[in-house]
Structures are given as C-alpha cells and as structure tokens.
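User: Can you model how beta-D-galactopyranose sits in this protein?
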Amino acid sequence: MQRRNFLFLSGAGLAAAGLTACGGSGGSGGGESSSSEVEVFTWWAQGSEKAGLDALVAQFEKDYPDLTFVNASVAGGAGSAAKDMLQSRLQAGDPPDTFQAHAGLELTDYIDAGQLEDVSGLYEEYGLTDAFPEDLVTLLTVDDKIYSIPSNIHRSNVVWTNVAVLEAAGIDPTAVPADVEAFIADVEKAAASGVTGLSVGTTWTQVNLLEAILMADLGSTSYNGLWTGETDWSGGEVTTALEHFEALIALTNTDRDGLDWTDATQMLIDGKAAYNIMGDWAVASFQQADLTDGEDFGYFPLSGGEEIFGFLADSFTLPVGAPNPDGAKAWLDTISSQDGQVAFSLAKGSIPARTDVDTAEFPAYQQTAIDSYAQDAICPSLAHGAATPVAWLNEVSDATSKFTTGASDVAGYQEELATIAESNASA
Ligand code: GAL
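Assistant: Here's the modeled complex, given as structure tokens:
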C-alpha cells in the first residue's frame, strides 16, 4: 500500500492510475447520539490558523444552521501536541466527530487500527471524485477505500524573507539563490549584518527545514526514493544535505527549541530575522500582520535547480464510533465544498484541493502555489504526514532533536536516519 502510493507520487508526470474511489459504502460511524453538536478536533487554535478555522466554521454555520460546531482544538503547530491527545482519545474509545489529519501515509496507523470509517461513499454523494486532482484521490485511496477528505493543499518548502532586512544586509531581495550553497552564503551575509540569519522553532519546524533541504539537494526522484527504499540514506547526497542542514542550523536562533512556528515567523515579521523556511500557512500570518507582498516580505522555494512543490494536504476524517456521524458528514460536506475550500484557503495561505473553483482573485503568493502545484515535481512532506506513517516521522524527529542539540554529529545522525528508514520500510 505504501509502495503503491509512493510510486504514484514519485512518477515523473504523476501518471494516470485507475480511480477506485467509489468502491466503498460510505461510513456511517458507530455512535448513538443524534445531538446537534459536532465536535471538530484540529490544532488550529491560535492566530492565523484559528482565523482559517473560523472561516470554515462560518461556512458550516451557513450550510447547516441547525448544527452547532464544537471546537476541540489543541494548540501546537503541526499537531505537535494534538496528535498524542488524539491517540489517547481514540484508544479510550472517545473519538471526536471528526479530526484533522493529513492526506498520505500519516493515516496508515489509524486505518490499520480500524479507527476510521471509509468515506468513499461521500466522494460519490458530494461529487468529489472528479473535483479533486486524480493523483490526490489516488494518494488517498487505500485498498479501494478512502478515509479522509482534503480541505486544502499546502506547500512545505518555501523560504520567506524580510525585504528590508535583506536590503540592509546588502542582499538583493528579488534574487533567488541558485542552490542550497548559494542560499547558505546569503544567510551568512544576513547574519553578519547583526540579525538572526534564519529563524526556526521547535523540533517539527527543524524537520520542516530538513525536508526542504533534502528536496532541494536530492531532487524529486531521489527525495521520493527516500520513502520507498530506492534512495540510500547512507549515500553521499544525503551526507551533503545533512551538512547543509548543520550549516543552516548554526545560523538560526539559539532559543529555537522553545519556539513554535508562529514565534519563528514573528521574528521575521519584526525584522529580527532575515529568512524563515516554513510551509505556506506562514503567508497567512504575514497577511494578518498587514505586511505587503514584495514590499515587506518575499518568498521563493528552496531549490537545487529543479522546481519542486513540497506537498501536504489537510484532510478530515470520520472516526469509527463518532457520537454524531451525520454531523461529521455535514462538516465533511462544508470543508470539501467549493465555498468552503475557497473561504478556508484565502484565510489559511493554502490553495483549494478542488480544481473546479475560481481562484482568479487569490493573492499573488497563492497564484505561485497554484502554478507550481500544476507544473512542478511533487514531493510529499515528511513533517506533515504525506511521506511516512506517524512512527517513522517521530523517530526522525527524535534523531533530529538529538542532532540539533549537539548530541550527535552528521555521521551519527545519518546512520540513525538510515537505520530508521530500514526498520520502518520493512515494518
Ligand atoms: C500542518 C498543517 C497546516 C498548519 C501547520 C502548522 O501540519 O497541515 O495546516 O496548521 O501544520 O501548524
């Protein structure tokens, strides 16, 4: 199953595969309550992420005035606290009506544990199969069943810049570094001007940085092969990427482990940092801070020459035993509808997963993401659930934290990453 999904994602042209989306019965949930409350579990608890959730809720209230949204959000970027809490709730037989997850292998464990209903029937009922890109539906399909519905698509491999800080450091803010080496040289130059060269936060944001470097240094084919066993984690190209990671971590703020992504982004907003590498939910916080695209902040994908879209999609589920399965289906209807997808992405910095909506009025940044998603090579995000099951990501996160806190060197880190890949690929 894992292999099939990745073969698809890593195929140069995302080759056409037979759609099997309509094979299921549509989940019905197992709960008994017919309450009007719909408990929605996310990690969009604060700031621009909360604004994104609010946009969805407003649409939901319009679509289903008789239902009451219950906010079960747990703060912490990338679900850093939410995922453990969710696991406990599912294991205790206390699922929310629906929860946020990612399209891709992150759902593997929940599916294998029998914790998710097949919602492929809703794809038919809501007319989603043709509304989403074919490759996305294929990524979501596991043994002819589909266990979640995407609300949007985010890009993970974006470098964000503070234009004034770059100018003060003598760096042309419109110039895009040709490769990771050139980027490091610019970050060094920025740091020499007295600011933090590259802001970063706690472990998951460091993993986000790592994946962006791996994509740029290895290119899409080799990067995608990291998750299928086709690329050797012990090889020289990974060593180079880890050396680049080491060089960039040395140019980051030393208080990183106590910061979430929002704090690292705030350093850029406040002119305390020149660069930040983060998924494109960051653009929503620039918008919230009233920064102007091109004047106050800039962006480019970290690249080694090839144009790559670091892919992830937020996706909602119907847990087995949800107390209000009909309410959950209503939520799934709203988040997958044309209006829901547009309202959410405008507030969230993402792009709609649906291809049949009008995005002409979307801001400039999102236009670049729409073009890139359509044209560039697609690489699944590690930090955000597209590339691996949760256990593999957790082990990479632990090894990364060890490395960035100085408890291992490049050779030791690489050896650990290789061992983790080997044990998880064969799991
Ligand atoms: C990602 C999620 C995004 C955003 C980000 C930061 O995992 O897909 O929607 O919320 O975490 O928290």
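A couple of observations from the model: The chain has two domains: 37-154+311-380, 158-308+385-425. The first strand starts at residue 37 and ends at 41.
User: Helpful, thanks.
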